[in-house]
Design brief:
This protein is an alpha+beta fold. It folds into 3 domains: 14-127, PAS domain (Beta-Lactamase); 128-168; 171-280, PAS domain (Beta-Lactamase). It is 51% helix and 26% strand. The chain contains 10 helices and 10 strands. It has a 5-stranded antiparallel β-sheet, sandwiched between helices. The protein starts with a helix and ends with a helix.
């Protein structure tokens, strides 16, 4: 007679351990299996039955090729063989469930290495269909957003081009832009046409250079004063003679406008100049004519007064003689 109490106890403990492991894995949200080095199932959890309609007890002891569709086996075989060579495999793909639904799964084949020898591989398959759908929805939303941004950008570009054409084709007006510190950031064609300076000569320079091209630092003092007035009032107007690059002058009606964002923060300035030389000359001419006419009226009045005085003297003499 042989005492097998210990063996029985060990077998019981092993069965309890296997039941405990099976219970745990059966409640894991995903397919878990173990395949030996001959690609024969040695373990499978209950999720195989729910997803693929295969009873784990039927799977265990069978070759993988007997348990999955031919097309799936053709895709799976090289990956499993690579895992048995020590190369962990991870991929994502679509799979069809037992009820015919398509699910997107994340698949991992992890080699079981023991004492330098690969005895099999662990299989983990997780249903990530919901994540995939969210990703596809995000991609769709991004594409839709990019389309809207592209359309809006095209609209803004068209609007900017219209504005640029309008600004660049001004004749009696010119406009240019500065940042909040008075540095010229955009010197338009209309500004070049009116003042004679090219964009390369003006962009990046302080607005004060237009007040005193010979001594920009001196001109900067007057320019900063105008910028402060425009910033505090919203805009500042000025009538004065303005010098071009070639030394010629024109009478300018200038409006310096402070540009603020929706939050009220100062972003820069726009300067609009209008060439009022002809109007100035006409005004000066009319003023001169009026002055001359007034002088003539004064002279004529003085002459009439003198004539009246002479007439009064003559009348007095005649009256005196008659008496």
């Amino acid at each position: 007679m042989v005492d097998i109490t210990r063996r029985k106890a060990a077998e019981t403990a092993l069965r309890d351990s296997q039941r405990f492991l099976q219970t745990i894995t059966d409640h894991v949200p995903g397919l878990i299996a173990y395949v030996d080095d001959r690609l024969v199932f040695r373990f499978a959890n209950a999720e195989h039955l729910r997803v693929y309609g295969m009873d784990p007890q039927y799977i265990v002891g069978r070759h993988v090729s007997e348990c999955i569709r031919t097309d799936v086996w053709a895709e799976t075989r090289p990956r499993m063989e690579a895992a048995l060579k020590g190369q962990p495999q991870h991929f994502e793909t679509w799979r069809r469930t037992a009820d015919g639904h398509e699910i997107f799964v994340s698949v991992n084949y992890m080699p079981d290495m023991n004492e330098g020898r690969i005895k099999g591989l662990f299989v983990q398959i997780i249903d990530i269909t919901e994540r995939k759908r969210i990703e596809e929805r995000v991609i769709h939303l991004n594409e839709e957003l990019e389309q809207r941004i592209s359309e809006r950008s095209a609209e803004l570009l068209e609007s900017e081009q219209r504005f640029r054409l309008m600004v660049d084709n001004l004749r009696d007006y010119c406009i240019f832009f500065m940042d909040a510190d008075g540095i010229i950031t955009d010197w338009t064609d209309s500004a070049q046409r009116m003042d004679g300076y090219s964009p390369t000569q003006m962009v990046g320079r302080h607005y004060g250079v237009l007040f005193d091209p010979v001594n920009p630092e001196h001109g900067k003092v007057s320019a900063n004063q105008m910028l402060r007035l425009a910033a505090s009032r919203g805009q500042h107007e000025l009538h004065n003679w303005h010098a071009r690059k070639d030394g010629s002058q024109y009478w300018s009606h200038s409006v310096l406008i402070a540009l603020r964002d929706d939050g009220g923060e100062l972003r820069g300035f726009a300067k609009i100049n209008r060439d009022m030389t002809d109007a100035k000359r006409l005004d000066d001419l009319m003023r001169n004519i009026n002055d001359e006419l007034e002088n003539r009226v004064v002279e004529r009045t003085e002459q009439l007064l003198a004539a009246n005085k002479d007439l009064e003297s003559f009348s007095y003499s005649v009256s005196h003689d008659l008496r």
